[in-house]
Amino acid sequence: MDCFKQGMKDGIPIALGYVSVSFTFGLMAVSAGMNWWQAVLISMTNLTSAGQFAGLDIMIAGGTLLEMALSQFIINLRYALMSLALSQKVDKTLNIVYRLIVGVGITDEIFAVAVNQRQKVGRRYMFGLIVIPYIGWGGGTFAGAVMGAVLPEIVRSALGIAIYGMFLAIIIPKAKEHSCYMKVIAIAVLLSCMFRWVPGLSRVSSGFVIIICAVAASIVGALVYPIPEEGDYD
Amino acid sequence: MIDLQMCFLYLAVMAGVTYFIRAIPFVLCRGEVTNRFLKSFLAYVPYAVLGAMTFPAILYSTDGLASSVAGTIVALVLAFCGRGLLTVAVGACAAAFFIKVVMLLL
Fold first, then answer.
1. Residues A162, A47 contacting (CB under 8 angstroms)
2. Which of A84, A103, A162, B43 could disulfide-link B23, Cβ–Cβ 3.0 to 4.6 Å?
3. CB A91 within 8 A of CB B11
4. Which of A45, A106, A57, A50 is nearest to A75 (CA)?
5. pLDDT digits over B7-63, tens only?
6. B67 CB near a chain A CB, below 8 Å?
């Protein structure tokens, strides 16, 4: 299947979700002291929710570049796995150049839609699928950055929970379905709470906390509850 | 305020790492990961990351414990019922906003 229009159509629901989350990102970036164009630039060059929010935290806290690189690596490591899976799903119209371009747009949602197609997908479909969410992500960031300032404080602070709501919508169904995921998530959450509340540990910066928690919990999970099913990672 | 030069450095590192993680496997690999430990580890990472990012940060996300807890509970319930990303996010915001308004009026 290789139809630009069909790709665009499949991309619209993804874009809607992106607008709301990127709106919060733009809003948070500007209230942290960034210009609107910096916020938009981050969104247009990264196109990733968890990574951008963590990156923003590190920028605000004045973390090191190593911390930034490591945290982005760990948080976005899942994309490597998705890219692997997606590389088996695309057809021959994606030569190396097109793969380098499409690589920009491999997000959780775009990956999920693309691999769920019955047939292999071509480059025109992939471009269509990526373009609308990309515009939504950048446009939402812009809107949040610009309009955030005129929103009343009470609305702004309430919107701060949006991204975490989205994260819960991703992890809770998975935890409900497979108890092994629930255990791994519980370990990560427990560690993360310890780093926040235990004196001394709370001095470790946020980027490293996420890395340590995620890697430790995932290693325990991989050792104690290795995943039996084929390709069960999405 | 973030220094402009530092901002671009952060941005370059952030975007560079994120891009290469996506592009390199997509360009190079045609085979499948077969190592069971590695496969399991990679499968767990995204959920562990999101879990660690969400808690306890969600409790500090709305400038007020009551509104944050309310939003968290609503998000947990909606997510448990299998609602979509947008619904859960909006529901959490609405609950937090509602509590804030109530507390303002009290």
1. no
2. A103
3. no
4. A50
5. 999 999 999 999 999 999 888 866 566 788 988 887 888 788 889 989 999 999 898
6. yes
Q: How far is the C-alpha of A85 from the C-alpha of B70, rounded, in Å?
A: 38
**Minimal Cα–Cα distance from B66 to chain A, Å?**
11
Task: Say how far apart CA B50 and CA A167 lie, in whole Å.
Answer: 6
Window B:8-47, CB contacts with A under 8 Å? 9-11, 13-15, 17-19, 21-27, 29-30, 32-33, 36-47
Rg, C-alpha atoms of chain B = 20
Q: Which residue has the tokens 């099913």?
A: A229
Chain A touched by B1 (CB under 8 Å) = yes
On whether the pTM is more than 0.90, the answer is no
The ipTM value here is 0.89
Nearest residue to B2 (alpha-carbon basis) of A138, A68, A134: A68
Interface-testing mutation among B55, B59, B67, with chain A (most A C-beta atoms within 10 A)? B55
Q: Which two tokens stand for residue A162?
A: 């949006």
